[in-house]
Amino acid sequence: MSQNAENELNGPVAFVNIFTLKPGKLDEFIALQKVNLGRSVGNVPGWRGSRLHRSIDGNTAIMISTFDSVADHKRVHQTQGFAEHIAKVGPLIESAVPGYYQVVHEVTQA
């Protein structure tokens, strides 16, 4: 079985997206993302949660979302709600670099 097929079965998977925003659009982007994430709670099957980070320099944002599987994440992209959200945030984004990742090691402090 390939690593990708195994990931589909075993999850979880983190979807990381690095956004470069158009000048002066970071705050608006963050506000729209926060509203959309708030609406997602309890309404997105397979979604475990997201963390949204903004750069100190005010040019980029990183969203790390965790899903049970890649298929769960891809299913979100097929919804009307996602299409409506993209219509709002798309014009604010200069570029985006997305990718799927698996946690291979984690250290936390109690």
From TrEMBL:
GO terms for molecular function: monooxygenase activity. This is Quinol monooxygenase YgiN. Keywords: Monooxygenase, Oxidoreductase. SUPFAM superfamilies: Dimeric alpha+beta barrel (SSF54909). It comes from Aminobacter carboxidus. Residues 13-103 form the ABM domain. The lineage of its organism: Bacteria, Pseudomonadati, Pseudomonadota, Alphaproteobacteria, Hyphomicrobiales.
